[in-house]
Amino acid sequence: MQSYWIQIGPDGATLQLRDVTRPEPGDGQLLVRMHAAGLNRGEFILGHGLIGSSGAKPIGLEGAGEVVSAGPRAGDWKPGERVMGRCPAAFSEFALMDMREAMRVPPNLSFVQAAAIPLAFQTAYDLLVLQGRLSAGEWLLVTGVSSGVGVASLQIAKHLGARVIGTSGAPGKLARLEPLGLDRGIATRQGDFHDAVMAATGGKGVDLVVNTVGGSVFAECIRCLGFEGRLGVVGYVDGVLTAQIDLQALHAKRLTLFGVSNKLRTAQQRAAAVPAFSTDLLPAFASGRIEPLVDRVFPFAHFGEARAHMEANRHVGKVVLAITPSL
Predict the structure, then answer these.
(1) Is residue 76 a part of any domain in this protein?
(2) Based on the domain organization, do 10 and 83 belong to the same domain?
(3) Residues 228-266 pLDDT 10s
(4) Domain limits at 296?
(5) Could you read off the pLDDT of 83-136 as tens digits, one per residue?
(6) Does residue 327 lie in a domain region?
(7) C-alpha count within 13 angstroms, C-beta hemisphere, residue 11
(8) Can you spell out the DSSP letters for 132-149?
(9) CB-side neighbour CA atoms (13 Å) of 142
(10) Which of 83, 147, 169, 285 is most buried as measured by Cβ atoms within 10 A of its Cβ?
């Protein structure tokens, strides 16, 4: 079978298409014929935690396809069932998925749409629900709102009844998100949005911030938080890994700071929230109340172009690789 690998060297990360042996499912695993897989920027950023520091490894973190076979103790999954979930080596014709991560694809969703859900939406669910405790009527600020996690955060927040402010360097991207319920868009890539946030919230500040950008906007995110506000850090695409913390604001406003990453979690810890996610959000996908925003679909042979499109920051939502030619 064909599988994309990433080679990490002193000059950065390069993609390789390899012919490898089809894997066999082990204990608690499903063998999935992959039809589509979602791209994630962190897969290509050295030091981000999603790839190693050197050597070669198969790439891909999420996707959707059909169950081919199941290993021992892999639940009641049957061949031919449509499945989506986080899984390693997703940019392959076949991949192994931990059955604890596997979710049945709602009938109304295509494989491409399903491939856009597992990583971005489960990350956003962690940010907004599990740690962020976002409630109806509260204000959410998302820096880099046009990213995969940013759009997923917007959609989940609106599903919860919250109000959303988003930043982006491209006004056109913000306009594309208005139909999804973006209440206030701020066109900037800098840490200069405090005044606009305060104006939008009547001087109160936001209840939760999702920082997908990194250290260059961290201090401004702190400034934008209201009393008992929460700040979740999920990425640092700006490459800025340090930032000053206003301890007086942290103390006086009783702020909560947290990170969302799977880098140090065990497989059991990563899968622990899947049942709650399935209960809380899969019905919304099945009913059409939440529809994954797919920016563009690239054929399997054009993975390099898909990566370039994403790294050029031209997308709004998810970029998906169609592994099956008919998709």
Answers:
(1) yes
(2) yes
(3) 999 999 999 999 999 999 999 999 999 999 999 998 999
(4) 2-117+264-322
(5) 999 999 999 999 999 999 999 999 999 999 999 999 999 999 999 999 999 999
(6) no
(7) 2
(8) T---TT-EEEEETTTSHH
(9) 32
(10) 147
